[in-house]
Amino acid sequence: MATQTLDRTTTDATREIISYDPATGAEVGRAPIASAAEVARAVARAREAQAAWGALSFRARGRVVLRARELVLAELEEIAKLIAREAGKPVAEAIAMELVPTLDLMQFFARRTQRLLRPEKIDIGQYGLMGRSSRIVYRPLGVVGIISPWNFPWAIPVGEVVMALMAGNGVVLKPSELTPLVGLEIADVFKRAGVPEGLFSVVTGDGATGAALVEASVDKIMFTGSVATGKRVGVAAAERLMPCVLELGGKDPMLVLEDADVEAAARAAVWGAFANSGQACASVERCYVHERIAPGFSARVVELTQQLKQDAGTHAGADIGAMSSERQLQIVAAHVEDAVAHGARVLTGGQRTAGALAKGWFYEPTVLANVNHAMTIMREETFGPVLPLMTFKTEDEAIRLANDSIFGLTASVWTRDTGRGKALAEQIEAGTVMVNEVLYTHGIAQTPWGGMKQSGLGRTHGRAGLLELVAAQHIHVNRITLLPDLWWFNYTARAAALFRGLARRFTTGSVWPTSLLLPQMLRRWRERR
Length: 529
Description:
Blueprint: E1 9-11, E2 16-20, E3 27-32, H1 36-55, H2 58-74, H3 76-87, H4 91-116, E4 120-122, E5 132-140, E6 143-147, H5 155-166, E7 170-174, H6 180-193, E8 200-202, H7 207-214, E9 220-224, H8 227-239, E10 244-247, E11 252-256, H9 262-274, E12 284-290, H10 294-306, H11 326-341, E13 345-348, E14 366-369, E15 386-392, H12 395-403, E16 407-408, E17 410-414, H13 418-425, E18 432-435, E19 452-453, E20 456-457, H14 462-467, E21 470-478, H15 493-504, H16 511-515, H17 518-528
Parallel strand pairs: 6-7, 6-9, 7-8, 9-10, 11-12, 11-17, 12-15, 14-15, 17-18
Antiparallel strand pairs: 1-2, 2-3, 4-5, 5-21, 10-20, 13-14, 16-19
Helix pairs in contact: 1-7, 2-4, 2-6, 3-4, 3-6, 4-5, 9-10, 15-17
């Protein structure tokens, strides 16, 4: 995830963010910069409201979430246009990649959270024969703080808000300073849906506002952003013994084997690299193609790329919109310039978009060849509409290249032999590896999302993500209290002999060896009476 920075205009006098359309430069609206005191008050209100919310049934919480879902459906076009204006992406893409996944997620967790968090009985082996039982129950954490990014200003925070609320928590959300109005829209939808006053708040602002949220005694932080900022969040959380989930981006590889369906793989590469102007943590940022099929694959990728229509996100038919910030556009340009300076070849694109779109933050969808791992474009997260192509000879080489990164969020393998694809997938160091698919699994509510290495810690989505938002409590019961435990005081010679027998026989996990200790157990019980 690229670094969150303040590209919107702020002033100390007004203490507000001015949000601009990255495609046109026009002002979209303004939002206040919440102070540390205001953030602390929002957390306090959420904590006060959480007790009653946490006491509600899952069904009652789900009804509120489903009412919010109905509001989103009713206002689908308006919300999509707001996302397009603030984030720069096409309206159609805002619907497909932000609203459709969250609508599905809302119904899934509203209806399934009770089942996903039902108490679990634990098999405790031979202790169960002694009248003992154990189970796990799940309790709300309290108040969850969410710091969300600008690239998916609706989908990422809404998913985490829904899951946190369904788990019984209060929530305080700090949206990116680049997309504050989308964050305020999220707050408005849930307020109108009937979320209790104070339970869920949105605090808009800059980096200081996010830092204030980490310091405001929340019970867990969910952060999506850059590695550098994620490390600072992790340090601040550790100082407070506060758990956190960090989703820190990726440099995701795509492996195209010699037996792949070239047409399908080429189309996937183009969408995977250029959707959302390449501003997705799971974008294809490194594409490795078997040398046997590389010429045809590259030619088809270039052909498909040149067919894409780049325009303001609010214009019908746009495939690729503006980038969300000028700073990010400059990073992309610098990566491409560095690659070319070190021998890369531009197959198409390669520069800031000229003509009528020059006033906005547009960069041409770019395909590069002749790249290598010494180049910045193959090492650091570009987070823009650039697809570098590199060839390989063998499977071992492909795996080595794929794993040669500090990141490990997602990856994909393309082959007609799915068995081969799954075997290779298990060798790739990434939180999600897809076979003949790319990019979209963040949109599946049922599956976990998160990475390895510097792509972050913890998970969102799926049951694994839901378990990040509850405290697991172990309940252990002894139903037979007439007999004292054999291991209690006093440690007599007879007790020590029994303990040695337990070490040899009970710890086998088998009833028969343990049964040979019954005479010693009876003598110990008599001794204890």
